[in-house]
Amino acid sequence: EIVCLILVLIIYGRFPKNPLKPTAKSDINFRSMFASILAVMVGLVMFIYVTIVTAIPTSAPIGTFYLKNTKLLADGYNAVNTILVDFRGFDTLFEVTVLFISLLGILSIFLKQEHTTDTPFRKGKLHIEPSPIIKSTTPYIAVFMFIIAGYLFFKGHNEPGGGFIAGVTAAIALIMVSMIFGAWRVSKAIGNKLLYASAIGLIIIYIDAMTPVLWGDFFLKSQKLTFHLPVIGEIHLISPVLFDFGVMMVVFSVITKTFLAFSRFASGRKSYINYEGQDSSKDLEFNDISIEKGN
Question: Which residue, among 223, 76, 229, has the nearest Cα to 156 in the 3D structure?
Fold first, then answer.
């Protein structure tokens, strides 16, 4: 929700002041009436559907099965995470694939936009300098959030957490740094690496899913490995942890790269010029809070 709100605000700031041409009053009334009727019909259909579905009796809810067998079959106490990376691994497998494909689509759209010289978007300059307190504390907060993300990942199989929320937490930390110190700086440092990281994470997921097939087992079958270390003791490793690590990489990379792409789009770089008579692709760089001269 935080990331979506930030992206919406970035794009909202680039909307034209008067995007629609003046139309006749009768056309506006007709469109408003049609939209209202359509909204009511969709609402009634969904209300009837939910009412009918929830009224159908079920002999054994599937959630009860997951709760009872999460430790026995998935070797984890956090049923939410074991469902994502074990019981319903196919869902997660295709979800992260869709995430990666959507990132490629976003980047291709913005890449095409960069070669466009004519744009209806509004141009202007917003300068709100962050306070010294925010600038000095943001790096420490970001490091703390990265530590929390690691904790959520390693503890997610038995306690609240997991790869998805760990990736989101790490992405928000980097987005926060980008908003304070400039998205263009972060993009210049790791922008291209994020795309590679998301691809590597997706490859890890598919390797983990296909490895059991090589051993004559089922696709996505959970594998367990137990060994003993002299000082630490007995160590238990399960393949869903590797699957979850790939999910974390994909989620973190896709969210962060999408934010940086939206920031670049909203900044007006290359396509959008003449910020106070200057070429923004050369002299001015985008900071989600300010547009300032780059070093």
Answer: 76
Q: What is the DSSP string of 105-130?
A: HHHHHHHHHHT-----S-----B-PP
Nearest to 174 by CA among 164, 185, 163: 185
Assigned token pair, 201: 């994470």
DSSP 3-state of 18: coil
Looking at the predicted structure, is the pLDDT value of residue 271 above 60?
Answer: no
Q: Which pair of structure tokens corresponds to residue 223?
A: 């594998």
Quickly tell me which residue has 């393949």 as its tokens.
239
Give the span between the Cα atoms of 248 and 252, in whole angstroms.
6
Find where tokens 């794009």 sit.
Answer: 11
Residue % of the chain over a pLDDT of 90: 26
Tell me if 153 sits within 8 A of 162, measured CB to CB: yes
Specify the residue for token string 């995430």.
Answer: 99
- What was the pLDDT predicted at 290? 39
**Number of residues that this document lists for the chain:** 295
Residue 236's SS3 state is strand
Say if CB 80 and CB 162 are below 8 A apart.
Answer: yes
Secondary structure class of 102 (helix, strand, coil): helix
Residue 75's φ and ψ, nearest 5 degrees, are 55, 45
